[in-house]
Design a protein that fits this description.
With 155 residues, this protein is an alpha+beta fold. Helix content is 25%, strand content 27%. The protein is built from four helices and six strands. A three-stranded antiparallel sheet has the order 1-2-3. The protein is flat. Keywords: Cell membrane, Membrane, Transmembrane, Transmembrane helix.
Length: 155
């Protein structure tokens, strides 16, 4: 659960989630849980954006497009700057990974959503292909001797 603590009582804590629901959590449950404080020491958070490109795509061009998308996305910080890496060479694609920092953890849906939508649009414009796995299945049926299936005809 992600949200802001709005009240701490003797027996329970009230948390307002990102979708504005008020949840009451017993303090005994909280004391047994691992808690991540996204707002301290500051509210910025890093997102990892993964995308695969075709092996015949221009990797440097894809890097430039990804960085441009990130720097023009509202809520993404300029410092630290977005970084793009080749994550690995997959079976069907060159897998890229981009780290972007957003100014507030509450943008955890908006920022990645905007970036992924822009990736689809801009990669189509720039003719950078996002491949999908294709498998060819070849059925190899053994040839059954006709004599084994039907007895020879006597003439």
């Amino acid at each position: 659960m992600v949200g802001d603590v709005v009240e701490i009582g003797l027996r329970s804590t009230r948390i307002r989630t990102l979708d504005s629901r008020l949840i009451v959590v017993p303090n005994s449950d909280i004391s047994k849980s691992n808690i991540i404080n996204y707002s301290l020491p500051d509210a910025k958070v890093r997102f990892t954006i993964n995308v695969g490109i075709a092996y015949d795509s221009n990797v440097d061009k894809a890097f430039a497009v990804l960085k441009d998308i990130a720097t023009h996305t509202e809520g993404v910080l300029v410092d630290p700057a977005p970084q793009v890496y080749v994550k690995d060479l997959g079976d069907f694609s060159i897998n890229l990974m981009m780290h972007v920092w957003a100014k507030d953890y509450k943008l955890s849906w908006e920022v990645p959503d905007h970036i992924y939508r822009e990736i689809l649009r801009r990669f189509a414009e720039e003719k950078i292909d996002i491949p999908y796995p294709i498998q060819s299945v070849i059925l190899n049926r053994p040839q059954i001797a006709m004599e084994a299936v039907t007895p020879p005809i006597k003439r």
